[in-house]
C-alpha cells in the first residue's frame, strides 16, 4: 500500500473554496439569484414598487450571506476544529482506500466513491453529492506516486474536471 500524509485543517478550507464555484448547483443558484435581482430591480423601477425593491435587496443579502457562510465561515470552523486539524494519513492500493486520523480510521473499497473530481490542487473523492474526502496533490512524495494514484483511481472511476454535476 502507498501512503501519503497531510494536515487536513490546512487543506480543508482551501479545498472548499476551490470547489464552491465548480458545482453546477452553485452556478445555477447564482444565475437564478442574479436574474431574480435584475427582474425585481427593473420592475420596482418601472412600477415604483417599494416591495419589489426590498425583495431585490433581500436577494443580494441572502446571496452574500450564503457566499460568506460557504467560503469563509464554514472553512474557518473546520480549520479550528481539533478533530479535523490533525495529521491525516491516506493509504491506497488497487482494491482499497484507507483514511486514518487520530480518532480512528475508515477503510473502503474504491466502489464506495460515487465520483472523483480534480482541480489544480486536489482530488475530491465523493461519497455522495455533497460529502467528499480530499487528497491534496502536494501530499504525494513525487510525480510517480501521484501517477500511481491516478492510474488506480482511473481503473475504478473516471476522474472528472470542469463543472461538477
Protein model, in words:
With 165 residues, the protein is of the alpha+beta class. The protein is 50% helix and 24% strand. Helix 1 packs antiparallel against helix 3 and helix 2 runs antiparallel to helix 3. The longest helix is centred in the middle third of the chain and has 31 residues.
Strand order in space, largest sheet: 1-2-3-4
Number of strands: 8
Query: For the terminal residues, how far apart are their CA atoms?
Result: 31 Å
Rounded mean pLDDT is 92
Q: What's the gyration radius in Å? A: 20 Å
Poorly predicted segments:
none
The number of helical elements comes to 4
Q: Tell me the structural class.
A: alpha+beta
**Strand share of the residues?**
15-25%
In CATH, the topology of the largest domain is named PH-domain like
Number of domains: 2
How would a crystallographer describe the biggest sheet? 4 strands, antiparallel
Please give the structural blueprint.
Layout: E1 2-7, H1 8-20, H2 24-47, H3 50-80, E2 87-92, E3 96-101, E4 104-109, E5 115-118, E6 122-126, E7 132-136, H4 143-156, E8 159-160
Parallel strand pairs: 5-8
Antiparallel strand pairs: 1-2, 2-3, 3-4, 5-6, 6-7
Give short descriptive properties of this protein.
four-stranded antiparallel sheet, 24% strand, PH-domain like, 165 residues, 50% helix, 4 helices, four-stranded mixed sheet, alpha+beta, 2 domains, elongated
Question: Concise description?
Answer:
Helix content is 50%, strand content 24%. The protein has 165 residues and is an alpha+beta fold.
